[in-house]
Design goal:
The protein has twelve helices and twelve strands. The chain has about 290 residues and is an alpha/beta fold. The chain has one domain: TIM Barrel (Alpha-Beta Barrel). The strands form three sheets. Strands 3-4-5-6-7-8-9-12 form an eight-stranded parallel barrel, surrounded by six helices.
Length: about 290
């Protein structure tokens, strides 16, 4: 699997970042099979969060065996320093490790949330304390929504975050306002030599009202292997992207892995995903 440098952190991360949100509601046997599948594919970067149900607990048993072989990232979704500090320490316990490579401020998708985490006594202080005390290697920021790239640009103006995890896919790229914010963010990421990871690569749209939710993702994902191949190909053709998070359903991992290994022409990829008349931003109507 291709690897790309994770900004100034310097880690050569697999271009597929294992999205451990997929482990939030599965049993240990299912989790074990999925993690092994990821490792066998060459994935060396695992991304989890305190808010992902039992995901940290499912990864924990693996850490005594593979901790020195993977880049391990988790997130705190709390906004005040002391609760966030306690959550970071609990995450380490659940993950059965004494250190993560990256602690991220989770779900900071608008300026109101950014103000909370960067204010005096905010969660950023806890994350920086974790770095100072050797519990984390670096601090990043993540977020959803149409305001995410603009928010993350402002975040980089306030603090030199080592990584940014922001959404991009063809549907979002085709929104002129979103594209402008994303391009401005990319310019600043490059200026600061931060690592830029992305989410929602294989989302198709919001679940239609009344539709059966066939996957555990909060959005309706792409399920056709060729459309997944197209979505992954389009994202990985962008040189600024260091990695894409795999979707939050263990059944989709094999298709994303196959797509990374067999990419198509970027123009053909864009034509294929946009040929679906239902394809749209997953942030038109978020359930949270």
């Amino acid at each position: 699997m291709e690897r790309r440098r994770l900004g100034r952190i310097g880690h050569e991360s697999s271009v597929l970042v294992y999205g451990a949100a997929a482990l939030s509601e599965v049993d240990q046997d299912t989790a074990d099979a999925s993690v092994q599948e990821a490792l066998d594919a060459g994935i060396n970067h695992l991304d989890v969060a305190a808010d992902y149900g039992d995901a940290e607990l499912r990864l924990g048993p693996w850490m005594p065996r593979i901790r020195d072989q993977v880049f391990l990232a988790t997130k705190t979704g709390l906004r005040e320093a002391e609760p966030a500090w306690q959550q970071i320490n609990r995450s380490l316990e659940r993950l059965q490790t004494d250190r993560v490579d990256l602690i991220q401020l989770h779900a900071v998708g608008d300026l109101e949330e950014l103000d909370k985490v960067t204010a005096p006594g905010g969660a950023l202080e806890a994350a920086l304390r974790a770095v100072e005390e050797g519990l984390a290697g670096a601090v990043g920021i993540t977020g959803h929504g149409h305001a995410a790239p603009g928010t993350h640009l402002e975040a980089l103006r306030r603090h030199p975050f080592s990584t940014v995890l922001t959404p991009i896919n063809v549907a979002l790229w085709r929104r002129p306002d979103y594209r402008g914010d994303y391009e401005d963010l990319v310019a600043e990421v490059r200026r600061q030599d931060a690592g830029l990871m992305t989410i929602k690569t294989v989302s198709r749209r919001n679940w239609p009202e009344g539709a059966e939710h066939t996957h555990v993702t909060w959005y309706e994902p792409q399920v056709d292997p060729e459309r997944i191949r197209a979505a992954v190909s389009w994202s990985l053709a962008r040189p600024e992207i260091t990695g894409i998070a795999t979707p939050g359903d263990v059944r989709l991992l094999k298709h994303v892995v196959a797509a990374e290994a067999d990419r198509m022409d970027v123009a053909a990829a864009e034509d294929l995903v946009t040929g679906d008349g239902a394809y749209d931003s997953p942030f038109v109507s978020m359930p949270f």
